[in-house]
Amino acid sequence: MNVFAVSAARKLVPRLGTATTRSATRHSRQRWASLRLQRSSILRATGVSAWKLRFSLPPTPTAGLSWPKLECPQWVVSRQAAERPQWVESGHSRPYRERMATAHLLFGYLGSGKTTLAKRLEVEHGAVRFTPDEWMARLFGDDPPEESFPEKAEAILELLEPLWTRCLSLGLDVVLDYGFWRRKERDEVRAIVERLGASACLYRLECPDDEARRRIDARNQADDHSLYIAPATYDALWRRFEPLDVDEAWLEADNRTVR
């Protein structure tokens, strides 16, 4: 604590003895209690401990004696206001971000560059990224059996939902690298985001078929815990892909830098 704060507090609080007087009236005792409370407020505001200033308790004033009112200096009031957190002023029980959290939803078919864009959005927005394919590959291998794949994929989505919804409720952006091939899936996630008081931003990624196949082939040969996608699988899954409807709002993603 600087010398100025100590000096100011010493001038404001009198040095008095420790004796007590039995003849004090109730009003005088209340007045002295108010004086002690004001002294404590200044000590807390300045950060100066009582033992450092060597204050001793003054005697209770006798009847007819009134202590001068101790005012808190303006510089202490200003410091208290400056150091008070914003969430205290608003009455909230915890800090919160004034900016609305955003869920970035990525729509696109295999090889369109969704995960590459998801990683970029993760960095640009300080978001938490959720890529189910990475979870699938780490939990069940890069080529899980076809007959059990739907069940495992559904289990992973159920596992991730409490995580990304909790992030949104805490004011954190999330990137959902899900693909969102079906309209029902998109509507359900947008409804959840709206209930949480966040906003949803849908990105559409498109890629020529031959370029998408080239990317998938390169990814199959890489050792980065990616799911293996056979050419026959690429053709078979196309039946599940539902293009965006005209009443859905989306942003056209620039995936020219995707490899």
List keywords for this structure.
single chain; 11 helices; elongated; 5 strands; alpha/beta; five-stranded parallel sheet; 259 residues
3D architecture notes:
By secondary structure, the protein is α/β, with parallel strands linked by helices. The chain is built from eleven helices and five strands. The relative contact order is 0.13. The model is unreliable at 1-6, 8-24, 50-63 and 75-97 (pLDDT under 50).
Number of strands: 5
Residue ranges: pLDDT <50 for 5 or more in a row? 1-6, 8-24, 50-63, 75-97
Order of helices and strands: HHHHHEHEHHEHEHHE
Main sheet properties: 5 strands, parallel
Give Rg in angstroms. 33 Å
- On the 0-100 scale, what is the average pLDDT? 75
Specify the oligomeric state: single chain
How far from one another are the termini? Answer: 58 Å
| Total of DSSP H or I helical runs spanning 4+ residues | 11
- The fraction of residues assigned to DSSP E strands is 5-15%
The structural class is alpha/beta
Shape: elongated
Write the layout of secondary structure elements.
Elements: H1 3-12, H2 26-46, H3 50-53, H4 74-83, H5 86-90, E1 102-107, H6 114-124, E2 128-130, H7 132-140, H8 149-169, E3 174-179, H9 183-195, E4 199-204, H10 209-221, H11 231-237, E5 251-252
Parallel strand pairs: 1-3, 1-4, 2-3, 4-5
Helix pairs in contact: 1-2, 7-8
Short account of what is shown:
This protein is of the alpha/beta class. It has helices at 3-12, 26-46, 50-53, 74-83, 86-90, 114-124, 132-140, 149-169, 183-195, 209-221, 231-237; strands at 102-107, 128-130, 174-179, 199-204, 251-252.
